[in-house]
């Protein structure tokens, strides 16, 4: 009897992505299809970034992954489970954290109340998670009694990301987390996002700061008119002459 080590290895199969929206087609209500067969995926341990022109359907793709849009064709699979027909709330319960592009905080509530709201589905003790979030974003601890609407743009984005982390998500989706912040604040936010990803949470994010976002991306998607125009590693896309010319300003 030979040892297992000398046996031929099992046929390797590509690991399934942790989250995938596959061949998604659909739009809003009875309107025209915005998504035209687009596929977006994020693997375990990965930061995936979606870039593309305004109106390309980046936010629509995120909403479709989160269940805010009825797909006409295609499917969404989370950790091997088809979740295409689940409501957004049911997806949160399954481990999806989502920070939408707009209205992602409650401005009249305090920072701490915003974090508590993020955990609306949890019945256990929130304190440890809140401490982790204050560790990640120390300024939020200092400002925890202030109305979130009084904070700077970068601080409000920290509140929004912190709120999503309160559910202890197994995947985090961020739609333009650095919108409207200075380059320095953008760099800091990216550093924090990398830190979150290192805790083992795969991250899928839409970014208008395409070049900087692709620098930190394991995988990048260029979305155009609701479809996949280019897909590759962040470095591949940054080096691609056509991507550079058309989407990165040369
Ligand atoms: N709530 C909505 N109802 C109808 N059409 C929408 C809605 N939101 C976005 N759209 C349309 O979908 C298209 C893609 O928008 P969006 O996904 O927001 O693009 P991006 O995030 O890439 O800038 C646009 O033509 C936009 O006008
Ligand atoms: Mg958008």
UniProtKB/TrEMBL annotation:
Q: Which InterPro entries has this protein been placed in? A: AAA+_ATPase (IPR003593), ABC_transporter-like_ATP-bd (IPR003439), BCAA_Transport_ATP-bd_LivF (IPR052156), P-loop_NTPase (IPR027417)
The record, for PROSITE patterns, names: ABC_TRANSPORTER_2
Q: Which keywords, in A-to-Z order, does the entry hold?
A: Amino-acid transport, ATP-binding, Nucleotide-binding, Transport
According to the UniProt entry, where is the signal peptide? none
Positions of the ABC transporter domain: 19-250
Enumerate the Gene Ontology biological process terms: L-amino acid transport
Q: Name one GO molecular function term.
A: ATP binding
Q: Which family would the database say this protein is a member of?
A: Belongs to the ABC transporter superfamily.
Q: List the protein's name.
A: Amino acid/amide ABC transporter ATP-binding protein 2, HAAT family
Q: Which organism is it from?
A: Salipiger marinus
């Amino acid at each position: 009897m030979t040892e297992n080590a000398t046996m031929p290895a099992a046929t390797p199969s590509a690991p399934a992505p942790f989250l995938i929206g596959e061949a998604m087609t659909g739009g809003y209500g009875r309107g025209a299809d915005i998504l035209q067969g687009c596929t977006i995926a994020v693997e375990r341990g990965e930061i995936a970034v979606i870039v593309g022109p305004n109106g390309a359907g980046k936010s629509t793709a995120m909403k479709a992954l989160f269940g805010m849009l009825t797909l006409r064709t295609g499917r969404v699979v989370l950790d091997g489970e088809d979740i295409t027909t689940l409501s957004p709330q049911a997806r949160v319960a399954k481990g999806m954290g989502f920070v939408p592009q707009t209205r992602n905080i409650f401005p009249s509530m305090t920072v701490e109340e915003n974090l508590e709201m993020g955990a609306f589905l949890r019945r256990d003790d929130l304190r440890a998670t809140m401490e982790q979030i204050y560790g990640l974003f120390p300024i939020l601890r200092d400002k925890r009694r202030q109305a979130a609407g009084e904070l700077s743009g970068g601080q409000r984005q920290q509140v929004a990301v912190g709120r999503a982390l309160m559910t202890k998500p197994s995947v985090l989706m961020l739609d333009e987390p650095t919108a409207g912040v200075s380059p320095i604040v953008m760099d800091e936010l990216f550093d924090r996002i990398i830190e979150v990803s290192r805790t083992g949470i795969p991250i899928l994010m839409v970014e208008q700061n395409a070049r900087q976002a692709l620098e930190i991306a394991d995988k990048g998607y260029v979305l155009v008119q609701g479809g996949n125009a280019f897909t590759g590693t962040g470095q591949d896309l940054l080096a691609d002459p056509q991507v550079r010319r058309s989407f990165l300003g040369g």
